[in-house]
Amino acid sequence: MKKLAPVFFICLALAGVVILLFGCDMKSSDSAISPQSGQGGSMARFAITGNTLYIVSKKSLEVYNISDGASPVKTESKNMEIGIETIFPYQNHLFIGANDGMYIYNNSKPENPVLLTKYSHVQSCDPVVVQGNYAYVTLRASSLCRPGATPSSLDVIDISKPSEPVLVNSQVMDSPYGLGVSNNMLFVCEGEKGFRIMDITNPKLPFGKQYFKDLPSYDVIVRNNQLIITGAKGLFQYQFDDQNNMELLSKIPVL
Amino acid sequence: MSSCVLSDSEPFNGNDFDGTAYRPIYATADELTKVSVTAPVSLTDPGKIYVSDNYLFINDRGRGVHIIDNKDPKKPVNLSFISILSNYDIAAKGNWLYADNATDLLVFDISDPRVPKLIKRITNAIPVSYFPPYQNIFFECADEKKGVVIKWEKVTLDKQPNCFR
């Protein structure tokens, strides 16, 4: 556990920042979470922060300076172990999801990210989002992703005591893909099974508020109280509020 | 790390061959690098999404990028489609859209999003590994001489293939 300590100190520090941001202005919290000018979903392999484009291949982190947007210049290429899947910039850090864990890079110097640690978890196929003192991890149990007969799950890990990460909650999911988090709401794309909205007013105990079983979902972007969701039926946009009211704004169907 | 390994006996690595495996689908370099811009088309297999300014970019898995004017989320307007084989990822900033095309990184000028223009191709920007994006499966070993692997199809085989990861 000793070697994990730095991760949790960082998470704790980030958590503090997030709480401060949330405390100031709920409306602006979505944009404050991510330093990206644009915004991708949690499944992304591409991410832009400032003048830097990050790309994770299956086995490396590629860094490009895009000060001249028309002509990206490679500044760094970091070899990683095979199995890299997603990248999620968060303040001065990059959270890189792999199928056996999560890498955390410090990107205070955006063009030369420094690996801080790798937090290993069981083999699975999905991303992680962090808010406050808790990390939300979905583990998809497709036979192609996770050996054995363990079910898919949403795990909540308390990272408030950096040296002692504690799994505080684990509940069965159907087939989770992308994740999104915003204040007291957690959104889980459940693939062909639908789209799940969970309440995290008590952050260590997400509970299901709504499960749209007729809305297959793969990736989600949460932005300014709006959801942009893609899935087998197309692209759906919703407006939501703190009372979990959902209003369908529009859809672009798959034809 | 896992890689292409020869296995001459069953069970291998604790996994029995159950008759299913993955087979690489190849494209020639010419097929792969052909990029074209068309009028808006319907979504067929939407994947990842990216928002930048008032625009929404929707990846159609393995096929390309839909560009949507999303200024009014109640009335998104489909503006154009960029056909790019083996495209799964996108990001955009200002007038520039970045997209993968197998191992290449493409840059588009989207100052007129109805007519995006390919202005740069950076070859071999994204290292690939020649095996399927899955674990604990058997697959036919990829042969670089046959072209670039653009995807993997699940097939039924009588004989256990030589690669496993």
Automatic annotation (TrEMBL), chain A:
What SUPFAM superfamilies is this protein classified in? Tricorn protease domain 2 (SSF69322)
Name the InterPro entries on file.
LVIVD
Q: Which organism is it from?
A: Dyadobacter psychrotolerans
Its name, as the record gives it, is LVIVD repeat-containing protein
| Superkingdom of source | Bacteria
TrEMBL record, chain B:
Listed InterPro entries = LVIVD
- List the protein's name: LVIVD repeat-containing protein
